[in-house]
Amino acid sequence: MEAALDELMAALRCLPGVGNKSARRMALHLLERDRAGARRLARALEVAAETIGHCSVCRTLTAAMTCSRCLDPDRDVGVICVVETPGDVLAIEAATDFRGQFHVLLGRLSPLDGIGPEELGLDRLEARLRDAPIRELILATNASVEGEVTAHYIAEMAARHGVRATRIAQGVPAGGELEYLDAGTLTHALSGRRDY
């Protein structure tokens, strides 16, 4: 193979879930069938890599110093939803009518991987708890062991500031059948039950 094609396939493999075969298929598609799409993709990646950074308030991805969500006067500044990634922000925005603020951790506590409170910028979240009129922190970290530890750590931080901490419900998905769920999901569903 040509060096340029090898480099393109290697570059595509940096994407999550893309292995050798997928990278080869994508590269060949772009070069054989969609050269205009390849050029558009290259330009979009270049612009995004050069202009998009993290919001100075919530840490989501934005091309501005402060994202539009943090600047939106119609959002409830007293409620902050804490998530692990900017992708979580997009998922919540697409699926719900949540109108509060966000705080993006850009990860979760994982001492074995060297990720502690400093790496997650929890000092910035604590400053928001101290300086803003926050009533509630919604903990929307993932249901992994690290996500639960992170949620617990942040709940204790919120308690020190007299802020209510709530956890998103986790358990049986709509339309899910109990016999096909794993034990952890069923345990969460039973322990997080509510009045009907």
Features:
single chain, 196 residues, alpha/beta, Dna Topoisomerase Vi A Subunit, Chain: A, domain 2, 4-stranded parallel β-sheet, 6 strands, 46% helix, 13% strand
Q: How would you describe this protein?
A:
This protein is of the alpha/beta class. The protein folds into two domains: 3-51, Orthogonal Bundle (Helicase, Ruva Protein, domain 3); 76-167, Dna Topoisomerase Vi A Subunit, Chain: A, domain 2. 46% of the residues lie in helices and 13% in strands. It contains eight helices and six strands; from the N terminus they run H-H-H-E-E-H-E-H-E-H-E-H-E-H. The strands form two sheets. A four-stranded parallel sheet has the order 4-3-5-6. Helix 7 links the parallel strand 5 (136-139) and strand 6. Helix 1 packs across helix 2 (20-33) and helix 2 (20-33) packs across helix 3 (35-51). The N and C termini lie far apart (63 Å). The model has no long low-confidence stretch (mean pLDDT 91).
